[in-house]
Write a structure and sequence with these properties.
The complex is a heterodimer of chains A (about 120) and B (about 110).
Chain A: E1 3-7, E2 11-12, E3 18-25, E4 35-42, E5 46-55, E6 59-63, E7 71-76, E8 81-86, E9 95-102, E10 108-111, E11 115-119
Parallel strand pairs in A: 2-11
Antiparallel strand pairs in A: 1-3, 3-8, 4-5, 4-9, 5-6, 7-8, 9-10, 9-11
Chain B: E1 4-7, E2 10-13, E3 19-25, E4 33-38, E5 45-49, E6 53-54, E7 62-67, E8 70-75, E9 85-90, E10 97-98, E11 102-106
Parallel strand pairs in B: 2-11
Antiparallel strand pairs in B: 1-3, 3-8, 4-5, 4-9, 5-6, 7-8, 9-10, 9-11
The chains are: A mainly beta (about 120), B mainly beta (about 110).
Amino acid sequence: QVQLQQSGPGLVKPSQTLSLTCAISGDSVSSNSAAWNWIRQSPSRGLEWLGRTYYRSNWYNDYAVSVKSRTTISPDTSKNQFSLQLNSVTPEDTAVYYCARSFHQGSFDYWGQGTLVTVSS
Amino acid sequence: DIQMTQSPSSLSASVGDRVTITCRASQSISNYLHWYQQKPGKAPKLLIYAASSLQSGVPSRFSGSGSGTDFTLTISSLQPEDFATYYCQQSYSTPRTFGQGTKLEIK
């Protein structure tokens, strides 16, 4: 059974960096079959995919254009986890952030518990 | 980006009813379409992947169909625990995109 456990602060000041981590159990961040994603949800934007990291003999990343210039998603193979860094945040980045595994044909079959991140001074 | 449009946005139904939710993609996505159920305060839960494959552990009253641009999620006989918000999502291309959701409420 795959489990994803998120950690990170729930409050970030404007212009600072949002950092979240997703610890994986029951699978490997280096899996050749899965990808590891960050998704956020807010009333104004709905469910928004932010990006992913995945291993296929080399490491690859994809990002949503809307956040690409501010976002880094990176694996940590020593701890079997992956992280999200979103720079220069504004109140519009306030949302519930989820990590999720994609597997069967790109569907998100396992999700973290969600972290409400509020951007406020 | 591929736009996903769900209809209706909300729906009132009774226990035992048969319910159908529609999702339309802005371009053909073959069968790269998945359905999720979300309850308040919880992460979305995968119900159907690849348009019609039932995720392990999901009751058989849930079914999906469609290909190309038009897809449906059907609940054959609503149970009390099915009242939730449902989302479709495409994985044909990046960025992955979701529909706006269909809120299923008790009549």
